[in-house]
Description:
Elements: E1 2-3, H1 9-20, E2 24-33, E3 36-44, H2 51-69, E4 74-79, H3 90-95, E5 100-105, E6 112-119, E7 123-128, E8 131-136, E9 140-145
Parallel strand pairs: 3-4
Antiparallel strand pairs: 1-2, 2-3, 5-6, 5-9, 6-7, 7-8
Helix pairs in contact: 1-2
Amino acid sequence: MERSSEGGILYETVAPLIEGLGFAIVELVGKQVKRTFHVNLVIHRSEGVDIADCTKVYKTVFPRLEVALDAPDLHLEVSSPGVYRRIKDAREFAIFGGSKVKLLTSDDPDWLTGVIVGTSDDTLEIDVDGSRRTVGFREIKKAQLDYP
Length: 148
C-alpha cells in the first residue's frame, strides 16, 4: 500500500491538478489489489466539497493517473473528508483551519471543542469559547472534525 505524501509519484501526479482546481489533498492512498490499482483521494476546500466537485476532480485526475501509473485497470475514488473525519496527522490541522474540532488530550479525560485558529511545527492553536488555547501535537490522543 502506498500512503502518498509529498514526494510520492501519486502525489506528484495529482497535486498540481487538484490545487489548480482550488482543492487541498487531505489523504491520498494507492494500493494494488490483484490486477487493479486502487486510488482513494480525499479533497477539501473551505467552502465545502459536493458531488459535482468530486466528479470534476475525478474527470481531471483519472486520465493523468492512467498514463503516469501505466495502469490499464485503475479504480479511483474521490470523496470529501466527511463532517466527523478523524484527523490523522498534524498536516491536516492546517488544511482544516477555521473548522470546528474535538480533541482528546493526554492531560484531560474530557473532549476539548474549539475552532482551529492556526498551527506551528509542533502546536495547534484553537479558540475555545472566545479564548485561545495552545495544544502540543504530542498531547493530542484523538482529534476529529466536529460538525457545527
